[in-house]
Amino acid sequence: MIKKDETEDVKYKKWERKRAELLEEIEHYENELKTIKEKLSQTPKHITWQELRDEDKFEQLLPGKKRLIDTVNMIAYRAETAMAALLTSPTIDFPMARQLLQTLFVTEADILPDEVKKQLRIRVHSTSRPASNKAIEKLFEQLNQTELNYPGTDLRLIYELTSSAKN
């Protein structure tokens, strides 16, 4: 019969051996990490244009294309500014109105054409804030009053929030 002290001693030696192996493995990984960090610190942070491969180099916009893009950006900025002015109120200042518009521009929407009624409904999904929804509804009322047609069609644009949508 094996004594209890002997089995515990054997278990302790196995545990100690396993622990030593794990410590050795940890030291190995720490040394490897140190080597990688040294290599990384010696890696240049920037490369020059000449060092880029030909397939990685990009073409600069031609002056005419850049002018066109700048013009479109300027028109978009002015349109956003005009729309932000429509949203301002005692509770919404100009920067907040601009931020609300930028959120609106990336919000999901359903586009529902109705050939019979000659309408193109843009049904925008509601925000999580009732105050924002109210401001957006006010903006949509003003946009709907302009009675704009979608370019190239005779469909009248109608903007609405899903919370106030009428089926």
Topology:
Layout: H1 4-42, H2 63-87, H3 94-105, E1 109-114, E2 119-124, H4 130-145, E3 156-161
Parallel strand pairs: 2-3
Antiparallel strand pairs: 1-2
Helix pairs in contact: 2-3
Short description:
Helices cover 55% and strands 11% of the residues. The protein is mainly α and 167 residues long. The termini are far apart.
Structural features, described:
The protein is mainly alpha-helical and 167 residues long. 55% of the residues lie in helices and 11% in strands. The protein has 4 helices and 3 strands, in the order H-H-H-E-E-H-E. A 3-stranded mixed sheet has the order 1-2-3. Strand 1 and strand 2 (119-124) form a beta hairpin. The longest helix has 39 residues, at 4-42. It is elongated, with a radius of gyration of 33 Å.
Oligomer: single chain
Tell me roughly what share of residues is in helical segments.
55-70%
Average pLDDT metric:
88
Shape: elongated
The H/E string reads HHHEEHE
Beta-strand percentage range: 5-15%
Radius of gyration: 33 Å
* Topology, number of strands: 3
